[in-house]
Design goal:
Helices cover about 60% and strands about 0% of the residues. It is elongated, with a radius of gyration of 20 Å. The termini are far apart.
Length: about 240
Amino acid sequence: MDRTVPEEIDSETAPPVAPFSQLREPPTTQRGARTRAALVKAARKVFERDGYLDTRLTDITKEARCAAGSFYTYFANKEEVLAAVLLEAQEDMMHPGMGRVESTDDPYAVLEASNRAYLAAYRRNAKLMALLEQVAQVEPEFREFRSRRGDAFIRRNARGIADLQARGVADREVDPMMASRALSGMVSVMAYNAFVVSEGQEEGTPVDFEELVSTVTRLWANALRFPGHRCARLVRPGNAG
């Protein structure tokens, strides 16, 4: 059964990382740009240290070493400066997803590279991802943003699955969107448990990053019935360091 990609999947672009409607125009002077950048850097540090609910604007201005009144020149409230923090992290938090797999590519290698990029970005930004989860519980706009961002990556991965189905690499009997929701969700939850939940645990062995990449990639490949990978044994590579 051949499947085509729905138009809304095929036209999906890179998902946003911050609710940009919260942001003002950037300052036009070098001094203003430096002050704003200092506030954003300080805000990320304080948010990650104290959590969203316990962060006070005076904590941010103190960390940035600027007058309390300067904050309101650039931001209206905590929500707006958090949006700026997320925008600042955008490039590092972006990852390719499955995307389109070219006919000459090794699909397993592409899948592994995609999972590695996602997990590495999540690990680097684990505190920020934990913060976003917290804020999404209390701020509707950030909750909607998180949902839209997750759906955007799911659609991108569904497009990649559909491409693999068309090439005869992936199981054509599964719905690409449903498969993407299940498999993308698995990787997301595993990343949260490995890099956010485990940080707060006093005991236990840290997750081996290479083993995590190998495991989620193998599970993706087995679930989609990649030829030559369905019955392969899980291999544990060496530590990434």
